[in-house]
Amino acid sequence: MKRTPKPVTAEENSNAKKYWRSAEQLSNSPEFRRWLESEYPEGAAELELMKDSLSRRKFLTIMGASLALAGLSACRRPVEKIVPYVKQPEEVVPGIANYYATTMPFGLSAYGVLVKSNEGRPTKVEGNEKHPSSAGGTNTFVQASILGLYDPDRSKAVYKNGSESSFDEFVTFWRKQHLDFKANGGEGLAILTESYASPTLSRLMSEFMATYPKAKIAVYEAVSDENIFNGIQLATGELLQPIYDFSKAKVILALDADCFLRESENVMNARGFADGRRVESGKDQMNRLYVVESTFSVTGGMADHRLKLQSCLIGAFTAALALELNAQGVNVPAADALGNYATHPFDKKWISAVAKDLIQNRGASLVVAGRHQSAEVHALVTAINSALMNVGTTVSYRPIKDAAVPSRKSLVALVEDINAGKISTLLILGGNPVYDAPVDLNVESALKKVKTTIHWGLYRDETAQLTTWHIPATHYLEQWGDAISVNGTISPIQPLIAPLYKGKSNIELLNIINTGLEESGYTCVRQTWKQRIGELGFEENWKKALHEGVLTMVNDTKPITLNSEALSQAMQQNPFSTKAPNVSSLEFVFLPSESTFDGRFANNAWLQELPGAVTKLAWDNAALMSLKTAKELGLKGESVYAPEGDRTHLNDMDREVVKLTVQGRELEMPVWIVPGQADYSITLPLGYGRKAAGSVGNDIGFNCYTLRTLNGMDIQNGTAEPTGKHYILATTQNQGSLDGRESIVIEGTLDQYLKQPDFVKEKLIKYEEVKLFERPYKHDEGHQWGMTIDLNACIGCNACAIACQSENNIPVVGKEQTRKGRQMHWIRIDRYFAGDFETPEMVYQPVACQQCENAPCEQVCPVAATAHTEDGINAMVYNRCVGTRYCANNCPYKVRRFNYFNYVTDNPVWNGNVPETVKMAMNPDVTVRFRGVMEKCNYCYQRIAGARINAKNQGREIADGEIKTACEQSCPTQAIVFGDINDPNSKVSQMKRQKRNYDLLAELNVKPRTSYLAKLRNPNPELEQNAIG
Amino acid sequence: METATLKQEHHNGHHHVYVPEPELINGKPTFNTITEVICGVPEGKMPRLWWILFGISFAFMAMYLAVIGYLIWKGIGIWGNNTTVGWAWDITNFVWWVGIGHAGTLISAVLFLFRQKWRTSINRFSEAMTIFAVICAGMFPLIHMGRIWHAYWFLPLPNSMQMWVNFRSPLMWDVFAISTYLSVSIMFWYVGLIPDLATMRDRAKPGIRKTLLGLFSLGWRGGNRQWRHYERAYTILAGLSTPLVLSVHTIVSFDFATSIIPGWHTTIFPPYFVAGAIFSGFAMVMTLVIITYWMFPQVKQIINERHIDNMNKIIMVTGMMVGYAYGCEFFIAWYSGNPYEASIFMKRATGPYWWAYWSMITCNVIIPQVFWIKSMRTNLTVSFIVSIFVNIGMWFERFVITVTSLSQDYLPSSWKYFNPTIYDVACFVGSIGLFMTLFLLFLRYMPMVAMSEVKGVLPHANPHHPDHALNKHGRGHETHQVEKVAELATKNGGH
Hints:
The complex is a heterodimer of chains A (1029) and B (495). By secondary structure, chain A is α/β, with parallel strands linked by helices. Helix content of chain A is 28%, strand content 19%. Chain A folds into six domains: 1-83, no CATH class; 98-149, N-terminal domain of TfIIb (Single Sheet); 158-223 and 406-548, Rossmann fold, CATH 3.40.50.740; 226-399, Dimethylsulfoxide Reductase, domain 2 (3-Layer(aba) Sandwich); 586-731, Barwin-like endoglucanases; 747-1017, Alpha-Beta Plaits (2-Layer Sandwich). In chain A, a hairpin with a 2-residue loop joins strand 4 and strand 5. Chain B has one domain (7-154, 185-487). Helix content of chain B is 65%, strand content 2%. In chain B, strands 1-2 form a two-stranded antiparallel ribbon. The radius of gyration of chain B is 24 Å and the shape is globular. The relative contact order of chain B is 0.19.
């Protein structure tokens, strides 16, 4: 609802009388005109009026206006005038959303997305099926970006030396600088940028270098694929980006690589992996995944064989594997240059079996290493993939063009230049180096040495607060731009909304830096594209690209030639460490957080509240370690995964605090025990402990960058000691194991499945179907909605949880409420560990309302607030609910969520009202629930209703696949299938006919509409005895 | 073993017993001394202890009301309930109070129908307690609602919104069960009060008190016809109330028993809940009687060791009944072969809530065993301590059932521990404050003992009503209890 504009204020018309009498007078105010033109007027006009000192007249004005309105306000709600479209834009039908294709740039990656727009207000992000990096799926960051757009803590003004200024002032300032630097060739000018892959930015950057040839450019990313590029360069002599095709790989070895969540291109990787694993009949084949890693990752959870190994030994392990491959007859280049890694007590049998498997599947195998492994590891991995003839099939390489490739060295060089006094003007184009640069570089003090520093970013963050100038950035949903995906496909970034907070895009800013002239991003991008695709038929191509979200699908990969000599040299010069860490010399591994990544999403409440994929921790990070490590450090090792029989583990969230020390730098943070973590290896998630993230993200968690030095950006040696202190952590899952309940997550091996496709039946609890009364619903007419979740495809990435939150206006509740067990997520990803504590396996099970046909919740509601619809949905009637919580108690799946507080006006995250802008991210098709009512998943009923109306208008039936629930749509692995179970040909019916299909807690005779497909593992028979399956 | 009582005659098919039962009332009271003792309390000044207790109780009640106000203003979130444990102290308190409210009907109605004449000394007491306990109980389901302002949706009121209640929900049944119980209890209590109110009216000086007493005594003059009607009404009400003793707590137990949550879904619940209710109700009567002793020692004459002894026997028996139920639950959990059921019972005893479970066992099963010893049964200090333990133990029983079952149900991922907040405690303590305030006001303004009925069991009472006489039962064990009684019994030709 649009708010009434404020009347003419005193500042604007100081001599005039301070009140207004007619609407005409009001409409003549510049405020009103601006409001008419802009999409979104500034809210809280009344409050602003109140801010001025209250004169008697103003008091009377307000009182008079209040009295005038009082006559209208006989209803409960505050009066907010709405203004309809006088001239309705052609493409906008009120109430019907439009979708626009755009691209979310993320470092060197680009996620093609479709964004839902309700009357000019973007509300939901979906993957673009036509884009190679998303293929219709998304990850949590993409899903949560919509909230980032509306973040009220985003920077709203240009700042100069800490006080508000204007962009015009900056332009004036820069024009002078521009002339000076142009004259001296850019002497003393430097740019520190975050990485990007964009034709337009790249063009502007070349122009920058042309204008200021002596200027310096540094590219820094706290978390990047730099090591991967360096490694490939080491092996091939070229700057190449790897593109993995997991779908073609039959055997995959992931070396400390969380390909499906933390690494680049996780959406595509996960999709490919799941595609190579889909089992529909007894004839299907499955890929096999081996994972060697230090901390449990979602990739490790999917592994058929997982070996825990400290990250610092991965290099030696890779070398041992190369030697084994060599021994088994595959000539790995540079293998002869490798030392005697075989002496290290790696599991010989394991390596030999993996090597054999890789060789047997030559050309259809894949070895990947994590981005925090050294360049040498990646060089060797490239050599192994090449030797296994995987290049061109499962992995291919593309020259990196039109991109800013992150380079830690360039940052070091820049800081050296600054410290030498060579830089007088520094433009920081995105990024937050004060927070995330290596701590021993001391960027903070370096910045102070630069005369003029200019920061461009979404927030007035740690860096922005120290710079001379700060320019607010536009969100990607507010700007024109372009991006290049990993396979070279160019996709446009088009704005869904005018900038909310006077932001400028990096393109616009860089253009001013180059020319001193303002030019719109639109023009800049079109200019680049005209150069690329030519003027001929440009408009047509441009329109098509904007419509499709991609310019053209390209695949400019190239074959590689290995430089064995350089490789051998590198292997000899930098031999891999074989020194295993121990209790007095621990290994610290820095990994990006699953929630805040490198800290950039720290102010995103959805992501903060999202439980970690493995730890299920929300609103905090913690030092992850194994129980053995904790005990040897002298800690008690309290854990929610404690062995059975522990009486108090459901309660105790007080975690011991440990002091971590790296080269004299100390950090105290709480310990979180993770089963399956390599001993003496402590994982430190980055991206927390921000000081200037915004009202949501400030002082959440612990800043591990304070231990991250240049020589230990990825893996660091250090010590830890108990402090005797405690810290309260919030987890959403207090019980780690299934407690022997095998029928909940059913798992088997491929062999088992091939021999006995209905093996699931044996694991289910037998029960007799008892009928006490006739079922009130026949469920055999019309559409009957149902869902399947393939546990074999679910990787536990949490994308569905955020998608659901975005689609269904699910509130965030903050750490304290999460700790109390009141998180509101309608779909949760249950994570269970099985097997022994040291080498467990991990399984995921997404659980939302199962839409029981015989719903126990419906029976107990005294006021019939939850009832069945004809199409089989267990509907929740919010405005009928009186809040007895009986339904939630009687729900065996515990999927009902109660509004313990009014999370709109009394939200613990914002200490009160949810900010107006955050409300703009809400889906207008879904009610916002009041305090005291129950809520839960309803299969995105608004989407069902929308499709039904649509189909009816067009006089046809709803087609299968036409309705996708938010979780289904976001799922990168397509694990969730929704559809009409009354239609035998629908996808969901086909899924339900599979032998792996089972109902969760079927023995309760609740007849859930959601069913699960049993998980399969494909262990190597040679390793069967220590298979984790 | 029947003691030879002086059976006089049969009339209208009833036993009419002109039994001097001197052991029921200590000393040799006349009608007048009974009246003096009982009416003396509301007519006289309240002792210092009354004021102290009233001050404390009133303060707690005020706090309770304030917390309820805050609860309604802010939301249920001020309590510790969470997604997994949707009901915690709220429903625990509700069931606990309903249970306590059971002794009243049992003593008034069932013991009346069974002609247990010892009940006359304590029935007023326990009826009052019942009403107050049911009021306390009824508040919890109300305030535990997320949107209390829609509480009237619980009532099947025809309306224009096309809304109707769900009669399949046990909470709906609760609404009827509790409201029926409350109204019948109030009726029963009031009918019993009429002759006594008239007595007080006659003693009162003219003024507002006399007017009010006159109003509420409904013109009682003590005439034969009035007595006859009164006795009829009383008997009918007793008959009506008797099924309620079984039904109310049975229905409350349906809240749990008809659900599908392991630990709730149990067929033993109805009898088990009823036994537990009687158990806790008697314990609460015991607590209140002894507190009353401290304030008004003269009452000891009327409520004496014999009553204490009888109540303790019932406490011990019902305690063993709930003990049996605890054991039976475990047996069925194992015998049914239901893995979820077995799991929750093991977890109750050994899981995160082991302390609550063993507190319950200790308080409810072990501690009342001291009542095997006669001297313990008649010792006021011991009785008081045990009654407090039983109150605590029964609260834990409700807590164990409500919270532990929810805490660890089907999917281990949802398992969650419940931690109360200060507001949970405030609501519980506050409800006790409300209860005690009402009870102390009752002592202050009402005849705490049913004078007319006590007079009826005095040795020199004439058989002046047909239905309210005492039969021959009950003296068998009485002879074992009080020496004086034994002596008298021997004199009267007992064994």
